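Appendix B, Record 12. Input sequence as logged:
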Amino acid sequence: MLDRIREGSQSFIVKAILVLIALTFALAGIGGYITNQPEPSVAVVNGEEITRVEFDRAVENERARQQEQFGDFYATLAADPGFNQQLRQQVLDDLINQKLVELYSRDAGLRVSDEQVKAAIREISAFQVAGQFDNTSYQMTLSGLGYTPDGFAELMRRDLARTQLLQAMVESEFALPSEAAAVQRLVNQKRSGAYATFELDQYIDAVEVTDAELEQWYQENQQRFNVAEQVKVEFVQLDADVVAESVEIDESVVREWYDNNQSRYQTDDRYRFAHILIEGEGEAAEQEAQEVLTKLTEGADFAELAAEYSDDIFTAETGGDLDFIEPGTMDPAFDEAAFALTEVGEISGVVSTSFGYHIIKLTDIEEGSSTSFEEVRDEIVAEMRQDQVKQAYYELQQKVSALAFDIPDTLQPVAEETAVSVRQSDWFNRNTAPSALNHPAVLEQVFNRDFIDEGLNSDLIEVNDKQAVVVRVVDYQPASVKSLDEVRAQVLDNVRTEKAQAAAREDAEALAAQLRNGESVTTELTALDAVDRRNTEVPRAVIRSLFEQAVPAADSVQVAVTELSSGAIAVVQLTSVTAGEVDETMQAQMAEQLTNSFTQQNYGAFIEALRNEADIEIRLDARGNATE
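Logged structural output:
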């Protein structure tokens, strides 16, 4: 089953859908499975909660994914509050959809085999070392957080059942060769006809506009001239990157730090073990372990006995191999017995632990190593620089905050006592704020009427991890509507344009009627001879109109009137249609595109149906705060 899933997941549409319905830990992290602490919820779906922890982790994972996708351009996107709000909403929608599919899978009774669960667990990156499943990481994570392997496997089983459902939807779609051919014939279709344009310049000079018409148009379109409330502010901006430019690292301090922390750059000897686990606490389990030990002392192969007797399903098939482990990572009794072994090939006696009875074999010893100063010098400098920048930035924040508070009606003392300059903005509203102030918390502050009336400095407002501002409103203009006198030229231009368009459309409709009736016309038409949808020499609106019209009956034409992007009016005549050719080399690609389209439609309809029938409670406001 999983092999089929991997094979199917290589297509574009499968990847697109599986991004939305990936295993829960891919969005929420392993912690979503291995914590029993009750968490605030951001949504409740049919009585089951989506926790705040799941949501926050999903947001961070999506940000990381987009940062990898967009590279340096992501910083520009992330600075836009609207972008961040849209990202958070999309993540919440995805988590809700994911929960709905999970519940549907459970109610449908879908089941997953033990072998599928084992294979999926082995592929979780959190349990892998160097690309291979690491039983030590697996056991440590589950044991340290209070989960048994069986309990975690059951959670995985439910997730796989959900994925199985959606994979079945993906693989059930197909496109017939005749459908692919029909689409090719449609896409490659060519059409002939003619068109004529009625430019506004031909009418605009003849248009007469009265004061009453201006007044009427202004009253009907007054919302176009709304002026949002605006402020002028003075502010100081703190930037950690600017602080970093003044930080210098003393080379002697770097060397001294290395000498005092050499243990960080040395590795101890590493020991690799294999084990045979007999689960249970009674005499029967201990006796079975003793029997296995006896066989080993008689010369039996350890790996073969592990495969036959060990109850550790993940290591039994690899000869009981536990890979390299460090002291303190396993059960204390296990650690004591394992690290008492000194020679490769040496085998312990029967060791009793909370997991059962173990027989342990030392299979390899890897000598430790030491990393030289030259190899880690740049890493140490980077860490020191980061620490000093953080400290300097924190101290600057504290100093600016104190100065802005002590003398609250000006920011000049801040400029005098620090290297930060005071800046003054032009007029701006909530949608035109300069980039340094374009943040929800800043905008909420500067457009707060009490804050405006006080005219005092704000508290330090953190815009992100590296930037913060202190602001003070120096002038304010309430929301208003521009008077007709202020916008008379603009109103006049709009009225004249509309009247010119109406006159042009009237002439265009008259020409269209003549063409439909087969009458001779004096207007010159530009011929369209077998043009396709991709034609760029003809106005786009004309091509669109040409291909939107129905195929004309024999000995007749189709005619439509459309508006061009310039505002001009066009009459478009369709006289004949030629079916497109089918390119056999494109059939497979077209069939795949159709299948992908069908899958998207099917998945979208499925999710829409689930959401329509579901009881969904959103507990997040527009700013991402819980509303409970």
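Confidence is low (pLDDT under 50) at residues 1-37.
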